[in-house]
Write a structure and sequence with these properties.
The chain is an alpha+beta fold. The chain contains 18 helices and 13 strands. The two termini are 35 Å apart.
Length: 566
């Protein structure tokens, strides 16, 4: 038996659907007054079992209840005799949902926590109690950096680089240019589109300097990214040690960090995010804005002079690879941002690269992940009030988005959780897929793309994805630390594991269920053949299902900002 709900809650005028695994009647109870507000019958959506959880699923719709308050859903039983024994009481107690609220705005605190979590990934500085609370650590990773090949060749007196700064990418201490650019892309676009709900203070060292704190936090990563450009405009792919550190605190990691070679994906992502940053920060820091676009121009010229330059790890190196078989989508994003932002640059070259890559049949035009960034080009083009790319390009993006939205709405109808995911979508970092599809629905809304169904709005469809993330799933698990009665607690993150504090800092999105879980702890905890939605181990060792990353938080920031702005 399970009764699954968003463990934060529902907006007053939004759909309020609970998922359960048993038929029958269910009552919505105001937990403050004890009043039974409404009784509804569970409805079976699918003839067969749900393909994601491999269970019978039923939905209960309490959407007509709009009164603010704290609620819980109980299964109605036939036992009305007050003298029933204690074992029956315990059974009744198990047949209830977690508590949740109905309120005007439900994700305000969540959005702030998702944003503040990035501060805890800062590298090259100490996290002090006045900003970090109990989650402090000393200065980390300030030693000089050398190039990978100098390390491999054991070069005497190698050239060194000062590359302090940036965000630790994930549960390890590496920093990666493509991952950082994509995380920044999510957040900077969220600010550009929904800045009205992104003005709050985060209690970080820069708070009060006249710049919104979310932009202060992004600037910490941007300043580090600037350092990765070489003299010719190439951009180093990543900065890590040769292998991941053991589970230690950041300041205890004394391994030699090194620059790994330039990749064309890193260069193109760098161009795109620097052009975007130049546009966003012009109001707050004109000098930085000017520097960012100058750096972007330099790296764009590198792209003109070089074809695809891939990346694979040097033999024996086992830090994150972030490889990619092509760079067409990255070049599309770079050209789109330069075309929109740099009106005094080489506009003809920007347009030529843009038109070449938008017509590449292998580019999806709708993706927002680190491996496929074409959706950011769609964001650039379809939110440009000056329509710089032109009507033909806009229509091409709109048609691609409409086709994908239609597919995803069909997918939602084929499972019991109204989730835009198929069984095959539960890949490593599946929660990123959920959230990036939320971004796509938001963009379709912003671009006024006709919704192929009248039953739900884009906003409601996006909420459905968030409800899954926050507990309306087969594990009854909120995948954001600190949010929900059954929020996961053991992320794969070195500081969280080693700081001696029982609970993790709040606001971290877990990678989520992965059908082909492969780490030792997941293999020990989960059975082979587990249903896709249940392939998650809340264990610190489960890097394949329970790691954190900056680019799993960043789409959540975008989606919550979109929902909070309406």
């Amino acid at each position: 038996m399970g009764i699954f709900t968003d463990q934060i809650g529902f907006e007053s005028n939004e759909k309020k659907i609970i998922v359960t695994t048993e038929p029958g009647s269910y009552k919505l109870v105001n937990e403050d007054s004890g009043e039974c507000v409404l009784v509804k019958e569970a409805v079976k959506k699918l003839e067969a079992v749900d393909p994601l959880s491999e269970e019978e699923t039923y939905s209960v719709d309490f959407s007509e209840v709009n009164k603010e308050g704290k609620y819980r859903v109980y299964k109605v039983t036939d036992n009305t005799d007050d003298s029933q024994d204690k074992s029956n009481d315990n059974k009744q107690d198990a047949e209830k949902s977690d508590t949740f609220v109905i309120s005007e705005k439900i994700y305000t605190d969540l959005q702030r926590a998702l944003s503040k979590a990035l501060y805890f990934q800062r590298c090259g500085c100490a996290l002090e109690a006045k900003h970090a609370g109990i989650y402090t650590h000393k200065v980390c990773h300030t030693d000089p950096v050398i190039h990978l090949m100098d390390f491999v060749n054991k070069t005497a007196n190698p050239k060194t680089f000062d590359l302090r700064g940036g965000w630790h990418d994930a549960g390890d201490f590496g920093r990666y240019s493509t991952a950082g650019a994509v995380a920044l892309g999510h957040i900077l676009y969220a600010y550009e589109l929904f800045g009205d709900v992104m003005q709050g203070e985060l209690n970080i060292p820069e708070t009060g300097n006249g710049v919104p704190d979310i932009l202060n936090e992004c600037r910490y990563e941007l300043d580090w990214l600037l350092k990765l450009q070489d003299e010719e405009g190439g951009v180093y792919h990543k900065l890590t040690a040769f292998t991941h550190a053991p589970f230690i605190m950041p300041e205890e990691d004394k391994d030699q960090f090194m620059l790994y070679p330039v990749s064309s994906m890193a260069v193109a992502d760098y161009v795109a995010v620097m052009a975007l940053a130049s546009r966003i920060y012009a109001k707050f820091d004109p000098e930085f804005s000017k520097l960012a676009i100058e750096k972007a121009r330099k790296s764009f010229k590198w792209l003109q002079n070089h074809g695809y330059v891939g990346f694979t790890n040097y033999p024996g190196s086992h830090t994150g690879e972030y490889g990619d078989s092509d760079d067409d989508d990255e070049r599309l994003w770079a050209a789109a941002e330069m075309l929109r932002t740099d009106k005094t640059g080489d506009v003809a070259a920007y347009r030529a690269m843009f038109e070449k890559n938008i017509n590449d049949e292998d580019v999806t035009l709708t993706s927002f992940g680190w491996g496929e960034v074409s959706g950011f080009a769609a964001l650039s083009v379809l939110t440009d009030e000056n329509h710089t790319a032109g009507e033909e390009a806009e229509n091409k993006f709109k048609e691609a988005i409409k086709e994908e939205v239609l597919r995803l709405i069909s997918v939602m109808g084929q499972n019991g959780y109204n989730l835009a995911m198929t069984p095959g979508d539960f890949v490593w970092g599946s929660n990123m897929t959920v959230l990036n599809r939320g971004i796509l629905f938001a963009l379709a809304d912003i671009a006024n793309i006709e919704l192929p169904t009248a039953s739900m709005s884009y906003r409601e469809i996006t909420f459905e994805q968030m409800h899954y993330l926050l507990g309306r799933n087969a594990l009854n698990r909120s995948y954001v630390t600190g949010f929900g009665e059954h929020a996961y607690k053991n992320p794969h993150n070195r500081p969280t594991a080693m700081d001696g504090i029982e609970d993790p800092m709040e606001g971290w999105v877990s990678g989520g269920p992965f059908s082909h879980f492969c780490d030792a702890d997941a293999l020990r905890i989960l059975e082979k053949g587990t249903a896709p939605m249940k392939c998650h181990a809340d264990h610190v060792g489960s890097y394949s299902t329970n790691e954190i990353t900056i680019y799993w938080n960043s789409p959540a920031i975008f989606v919550t900002a979109y929902l909070n702005s309406k």
